[in-house]
Amino acid sequence: MNFLESNIKEVWKFFVSVKLTIFLLLSIAGTSIVGTLIPQNASPEDYVRAFGEFKYRIFEVFDIYDMYHSWWFYLLIIMLTINIIVCSIDRLSATWKIIFNKNPSFKASQFRELANREKFIEKRSFDQLLKIYEPIVRKTFGYTRMEETSTGFCIFAEKFRWTRFGVYIVHLSVVLLLLGSLIGSIFGFDGYVNIPEGESVDQVRINNADKTYPLGFQIRCDDFDVSFYDTGAPKEYRSRLTIVENGKSVLEKDIIVNDPLRYKGVNIFQSSYGPLPAKEVTVKFTVTESNVAYEKKVMIGQPVDLPEGLGTFLLKEYQPSANLGGTDLGEAFVGILNTEPGKSQEIILPIQFPNFDKMRKDRIFISVEKHQEKYYTGLQVTGDPGVWVVYAGFILMIAGCIITFFMSHQRICVEVARKGQASTVTVAGKANKNTFGMQQTITKITRQLTESGDQPG
Amino acid sequence: MDSSHVLSVVTFVYGLAAVLYVASLIFKREMPGIAASITTLLGIIGNTAGIGLRWWESHQQGIGHAPLSNLYESLVFFALTIAVIYMVVERKYKNRLIGAFVTPLAFLAMAYASLSPNMNDRIMPLLPALKSNWLIAHVMACFIGYAAFALAFGISIIFLIKLRKDTNGDSILARLPAPAMLNELNYQLIMFGFLFLTVGIITGAVWANSAWGRYWGWDPKETWSLITWVMYAVLLHAKMMKGWDGKRIAYLSMLGFIAVLITYFGVNYLPGLHSYGSQ
Ligand code: HEM
Fold first, then answer.
1. Is residue B111 located within the same domain as residue B145?
2. Which letter, b or e, does each residue of B110-141 get, where b requires 16 or more Cβ atoms within 10 Å of its Cβ?
3. Which of B107, B126, B145 delimits the end of a domain?
4. What are the pLDDT digits (tens) for B24-73?
5. Residue to substitute in B197, B241, B242, B244 for testing ligand 1 pocket (most ligand atoms within 8 angstroms of CB)
6. Is the pTM of this model over 0.90?
7. CA dihedral defined by B198, B201, B205, B210, rounded to 10 degrees?
8. How many angstroms is it from A172 CA to the middle of ligand 1?
9. Which residues of chain A are within 8 Å of residue B206 when distances are taken between CB atoms?
10. Could you report the predicted ipTM of this complex, rounded to two decimals?
11. B278 and chain A: CB distance < 8 Å anywhere?
12. Based on the structure, what is the number of domains in chain B?
């Protein structure tokens, strides 16, 4: 054996080890706890505040702040993957031989000492039994074989050989999950974008990175609606989206949370929303003395003259929730009022309280009459070519667990021994696991064999 | 009488069942045991009726949804699954005495739901993210799994107590099932629970993918469910491959259940997307 070969053998031996599996699984579980105690992906300032400068530096060396994507966490997962694959290859050939054996070996002596057994006396003639028994056994078991013994005969039978593959299915599913997530993290993207109603975008911002991702088509938001329950809790967010490709609308769909739009491998999810400032606002100016009101359409950022030559007014900005001395006034506009040269003041015009500005007790008070409510929709936009690999893994894992836990390769031996006029029948069985299920099968077969005598014929 | 009332009555029915099981164990009589089984059955009927009623009430309020949407409702469902799985085990293994260690868990879950002062038992409308059939499958599967692990936890305790002082045949403990049987039962329940936890995590991932476009995000609750899954996977491998048995498996089973409790309750004190905790 040369040097390389012996090295490979050493490495192989290292990975063919359930101790290693247990060690790796416990390491993954243990380190994962850390990530649930220390919030992930927060800002450096937050961490320094929480831990101080020194601890912060140490934690940073080990990527504690994004630990599920750190090199050492990946290393654990890669080791686990190799561990599963190597173990499976190591054992597969033995399992394969059992499953695809055309001529499985049975020996009556193997079954004589088993705990799982039932015994009864059969009064029918020995020759009759020979004909009756085998079809009954064959009904429940796929493979049967008859053999003569010194005192009578044996029927060997077995079923569910293939369930020995269950473990490999589970382990394959684990590998698929890891592979699928790897594909996703290399070729996928995870971004977000805000689209004002009526507008379109053709790229999205990538989460946790200062990058954009071009989509290759446009998403247009035609409409956004939010509805509320009586309690004020949100009931539904709904965006009407249109996919525009090469200037043509190709797909239109209303999306809500839990019902995304999918197009060319890009998934678009409803995620958030927000109000947008209206561009044009109808403002009412009331002159206090005469109580005459004037309505005027005002554009944000463009100053207008006040009626009766009282000065000028500029609508400065929209605020989704204006705050005055700690009180939330809700949606409001902020304006700048110039009644005398050189003297300007900022005033708040809450939409819900039209008389709010009256409290200033000035010669003129102002309220916002009408503004067109507009929203932007916040979309989560992702692409993950690995997701189907992961889903395949999900299905295999559930199937594999059911097979591994609740099914087994069952082998039985029905031994009939002549004893005077009658015969003693022993039904014994063994399974590679789940002995309880084996016992049930034996009881069932025994009942079928005894009851077969009760029927006429 | 509304569903909350029905369910608070059920709390005391489970409490009574627990007392009867313990009485049967201590006084070595059959009668309280039979009464305990009947009481548990009544509790299950009331519990089911309460959940059904709550479902109906939510439809009356025009916000109809399966009653699996907050901590209160999940605890009520948890208690039901514990009681049902226990009754199945009782029938299959023909032993009533395990009930003394298991029905208190159903009682505790219900008592926490019904009696805790800061528990919100009002029917709340569903937030947009929770409107998904995957979510219903997810919650049901998880809690069936948790309930099986809860039973395994109770059985591990009996097992350890029995090992410690299984001496004279006359003691109370001698009437509990033999250690070998407890060991087997523990293992069966863990396999059953593991399957459902697996299905629960998977349906949760599919739900997350349909709501947020990612099947796994390492949020604390997800991570803890994975930690729990890994702990039980370690247990299964230790048993299947290394032939671990008895004491060590019982300890691992208890440790696993502690992970379940952290996944269920503890995580509420950590930041994350799962809204159950924050109510
Ligand atoms: C993270 C996940 C897992 C890892 C890393 C892992 C790893 C391993 C390894 C290395 C072995 C020994 C080698 C072999 O027999 O192939 C093994 C055996 C086994 N595993 Fe897993 N496993 C995992 C998940 C599971 C799950 C979820 C199940 C549940 C169904 C399972 C069931 C088994 C069984 C039944 C065996 C014994 C195989 C035999 O008797 O030949 N494994 N596992």
1. no
2. bbbbbeeeeeebebbbbebbbbbebbbbbbbb
3. B126
4. 888 877 777 888 888 989 989 988 888 888 888 877 776 667 777 778 88
5. B241
6. no
7. 100
8. 10
9. 391, 394
10. 0.87
11. no
12. 2
